[in-house]
Design a protein that fits this description.
By secondary structure, the chain is of the alpha+beta class. The protein is built from three helices and eight strands. The chain has one domain: 2,3-Dihydroxybiphenyl 1,2-Dioxygenase, domain 1, CATH 3.10.180.10. The termini are far apart.
Length: 139
């Protein structure tokens, strides 16, 4: 699998507005846009640092993955997303290498197809996502 670049890094936060204030006012990041992904139970603020996006993620439900993560580990680094040419091909290659994946086929959100690799422990404790497509939403 050829990873083309780091697409985005996600940070799990309890309070998106409070986190935004810190990242925008104190660190000087410029907001690219916000979105809600009901399927993932998240509300997100997206920024760019060079070509890499930084996303602050707040759970919209107590049973969401971000809420579970914060309950177990507290706020902080949640996942890294790598851009690949084709998620289907990446999943097939991972399967051939006997790597478990959470997703057997790509999910879709905002013009991207993406899949999660199973067990962060397999990747040094980091939840990892591969994606293709172009990020597209109304800012």
């Amino acid at each position: 699998m050829k990873i083309r670049k780091i697409d985005h890094i996600c940070i799990a936060v309890r309070d998106l507005e409070k986190a935004r204030k810190i990242y925008e006012e104190d660190l000087g990041l410029e907001l690219y846009g916000t979105y809600v992904a009901e399927s993932e139970k998240i509300r997100v603020a997206r920024y760019y640092v060079g070509d890499v996006a930084l996303e602050l993620m707040e759970s919209t439900a107590p049973d969401g993955e971000v809420a579970k993560f914060i309950e177990k580990r507290g706020e902080g680094f949640f996942l890294i997303s790598y851009r690949v040419d084709d998620v289907d091909e990446a999943l097939a290659e991972l399967k051939a290498k006997r790597r478990k994946t959470i997703d057997q086929k790509p999910r879709e959100l905002l013009g991207n197809r993406y899949a999660f690799i199973h067990h962060p422990q397999d990747l040094c404790g980091v939840l990892t996502e591969v994606l293709d497509g172009e990020f597209d939403y109304d800012k």
